[in-house]
Amino acid sequence: MKKGFFLSLEGPEGAGKTTLAQRLARWFAERGAEVVQTREPGGTELGGAIRALLLNQPMGARAEFLLYLADRAEHVERVIRPALLEGKVVIADRYADSSYAYQGYGRGLSLAWMKAATEGATGGLVPDLTILLDLDPEEGLRRSGRTDRLEREDLDFHRRVREGYLALAEAEPERFRVIDANRPLERVWRSVERAVEKAWSG
Ligand code: TYD
SS3 for 6? Predict the structure, then answer.
């Protein structure tokens, strides 16, 4: 039996992550893998409650990170790790790199602190492959229909998130594949498929 495979999808809103996650799930299933498709925040019952808090309750950056991390700890313990132990393919729509990009690069929290806390909370579980869908923030926000309401500082925040993602990818080229998402979905999909094919067989 093939050992479990942990794939995370990262990138901004509007990059097509959700559609690509669905296609990936089908792609793996067609090749005989058992697939668990999941997402953060909100992949567990506790995660659903945390997600609602994160969406509705104003809070500081540290509390925000720790709530994402609580969600992640539960997600790993109840969903991701058990599935991997059963040899399944886990496709996660966002994982720890989202926190490093948004709360770290975006909001300025210490990456060293976040990484140490994440290591403890997840037992050091790191994806086998991380697909980063790279997109200019203005294009992403346009696609998700938010350009009009956006204030200038929001755009700066999303620029820092993008640069952060690219820096994370550069620091771990073995794990990351950066894919240009500013193309028609079919072409983005073909790049994703190639990256996954290579990593999964290797
Ligand atoms: P979500 O509602 O799933 O939207 P998307 O379709 O973009 O994934 O994501 C919720 C938001 O939470 C998204 O703007 C990114 C943010 N987020 C963080 O800031 N840190 C994190 O650790 C995670 C997992 C998400």
Answer: strand
Number of domains in the chain: 1
Answer whether residue 1 shows pLDDT above 50. Answer: no
Atom of ligand 1 nearest to the CA of 99: 22
Give pLDDT tens digits for 6-15.
999 999 988 9
Among protein residues, the one with the nearest Cα to ligand 1's atom 17 is 98
* Domain that includes residue 126, residue range: 5-201
The CATH number linked to 96 is 3.40.50.300
CA-nearest residue for atom 9, ligand 1, is 41
Kindly report the number of other CB atoms within 10 A of residue 62's CB atom.
14
Give dist(CA 61, CA 111) in Å, integer.
Answer: 13
Residues lining ligand 1, judged by CB closer than 6 Å? 13, 17-18, 39-41, 68, 93-94, 98-99, 102-103
